């Protein structure tokens, strides 16, 4: 299952990076807001 996910992630790599960046930004916002 993990190999399948890895192969799938190879295509929309940019989207994954952007998603991770947005998630990190939201997490930072919540942490700093506390």
Structural category is: mainly alpha
Range of helix content? over 70%
Shape: elongated
Low-confidence stretches: none
- Quick one: biggest sheet? none
What is the count of DSSP helices, taking H or I runs of 4+ residues? Answer: 2
Q: Report, as a whole number of angstroms, the end-to-end distance.
A: 37 Å
Element order, helices and strands?
A: HH
Radius of gyration: 13 Å
Counting DSSP E segments of at least 2 residues, the number of strands comes to 0
Strand percentage, roughly?
Answer: under 5%
Mean of the pLDDT scores?
Answer: 79
Describe the SSE topology.
Blueprint: H1 2-10, H2 13-33
Function: Catalyzes the decarboxylation of oxaloacetate coupled to Na(+) translocation.
Organism: Salmonella enterica subsp. enterica serovar Tamberma
Pfam family, one: OAD_beta
